[in-house]
Design brief:
The chain is an alpha/beta fold. The protein has helices at residues 16-23, 27-35, 42-55, 61-68, 84-99, 113-125, 139-150, 174-187, 204-219, 236-249, 261-273, 307-323; strands spanning 73-78, 103-108, 130-133, 155-158, 168-172, 193-197, 229-231, 255-258, 283-288, 301-304, 331-334, 337-339. It has 3 domains: 16-67, 434 Repressor (Amino-terminal Domain), CATH 1.10.260.40; 72-173 and 306-335, 3-Layer(aba) Sandwich (Rossmann fold); 174-305 and 339-355, Response regulator (Rossmann fold, 3-Layer(aba) Sandwich), CATH 3.40.50.2300. It contains 12 helices and 12 strands. Strands 2-1-3-4-5-11 form a 6-stranded parallel sheet, with helices on both faces. Strands 7-6-8-9-10-12 form a 6-stranded mixed sheet, with helices on both faces. The longest helix has 17 residues, at 307-323. The radius of gyration is 26 Å and the shape is elongated.
């Protein structure tokens, strides 16, 4: 008796090779359907998709990685999970990765060089397909990223622009953004301006913001006071402490450039505790334009950073380098915008509340 032919997958696990045979394409094309569908014709994708539906096929990505040497996973290094600006970045990256068939492993350095280096080692041992770096970028981590590029693991730095032929960057000009914010205060008549900033000796972008603030004061012919730079941590509580320190070290300041919105929120809170009116006594500008900036009291003038666009472009850059086997890095600089709200005002020639009798 002639045996009836059974459908593929009835009594065995269907493979990429089976899908390829039934759909009339190569196994490589089927693999590409899962990790780079944008490279296939619509008709080819539809043909493969129909076969997959018939057999309820779920791809074994680990097995695929052994064949293609691609894990379809990106590593993301961030300095903290406590800031909503980084949450926005994560959301953007995860969404774009999902659309392109990639997953994301997230590592939080908590601003530690040692943790950053260890996390990069873990990601590289896992043979991630690429790395997005928003951490602190110590010399060891940059060396590791360059070494990874030599082994076909591309990386992209976000939030700042770097000059490197192997490491891509999708960032902003932190120097110019801080310069513009400080210039705005000077144009409004302020002549003594302090700054609240995180550990700038650990992060290039913070150091660039400090240089922008400092150079603007010098270029505008104002007297620079180093004591009016208060370096602190990254929390609202530390912003409040920094504000208290700043107005007592520099009691004649009439404006503050805060290098992050979080520090600015702490300053706004502490100002109320010390009965300093914002902006009548001290004007404050932040940096990031996170959602709460428009809802705090008073609404915060701040530098808007295109975090969502930055995350999307970072994923696009990695996928493009992988799909096209492109070794050379690309560098994209995005624009920032100073968003003016009620936390700043024109200088009036009266002493601030904290120095009145």
């Amino acid at each position: 008796m002639k045996k009836s032919k059974k459908a593929i997958g009835s009594h065995k696990t269907i493979t990429i090779h089976d899908i390829a045979k039934e759909s009339g394409v190569s196994p490589g094309t089927v693999s590409r359907y899962f990790h780079s569908p944008q490279l296939l014709k619509a008709s080819t994708k539809e043909r493969i998709n129909q076969i997959i539906k018939v057999h309820n096929y779920i791809p074994n990505l680990n097995a695929s990685a052994l064949t293609t040497k691609q894990t379809m996973t990106f590593g993301l290094i961030i300095p903290t999970v406590q800031s909503s600006i980084h949450a926005q970045l994560i959301e953007s990256i995860q969404g774009e990765c999902h659309r392109k068939g990639y997953s994301v492993l997230i590592g939080n350095t908590n601003y530690s060089y040692e943790t950053e280096t260890k996390l990069l080692e873990i990601l590289l041992r896992r043979r991630v397909s690429g790395i997005i770096h928003a951490g602190t970028q110590n010399s060891d981590s940059l060396r590791m990223l360059k070494n990874a590029a030599a082994h076909q693991i591309p990386s992209v730095v976000v939030w700042e622009n770097i000059a490197d032929s192997e490491i891509s960057s999708i960032g902003i000009n932190n120097y110019e953004a801080a310069y513009e914010a400080t210039s705005q205060l000077i144009e409004m008549g302020h002549r003594e301006i302090g700054t609240l900033i995180g550990p700038y000796h650990k992060m290039n972008r913070l150091e660039a913001r400090l240089r922008g603030y400092t150079q603007c004061i010098i270029d505008k012919g104002l007297k620079f006071h180093e004591k009016c730079i208060v370096s602190t941590g990254h929390s609202i509580h530390q912003g409040a402490e920094g504000f208290h320190t700043l107005i007592h070290k520099c009691p004649t300041i009439t404006a503050i450039f805060a290098a992050s919105d979080v520090l600015a929120f702490g300053a706004l809170h502490q100002a109320k505790q010390e009965k300093v009116a914002i902006p009548q006594d001290i004007s404050i500008i932040g940096f990031d334009d996170i959602e709460f900036a428009s809802y705090c009291d008073p609404p915060l003038t701040t530098v808007r950073v295109p975090g969502l666009e930055m995350g999307k472009l970072a994923v696009d850059e990695l996928v493009d380098r992988i799909d096209n086997n492109r070794l050379e890095a690309q560098h994209i600089s995005l624009s920032t915008e100073l968003i003016k709200r009620e936390s700043i005002t024109t200088f009036t020639n009266r002493p601030p509340a904290h120095q009145r009798p």
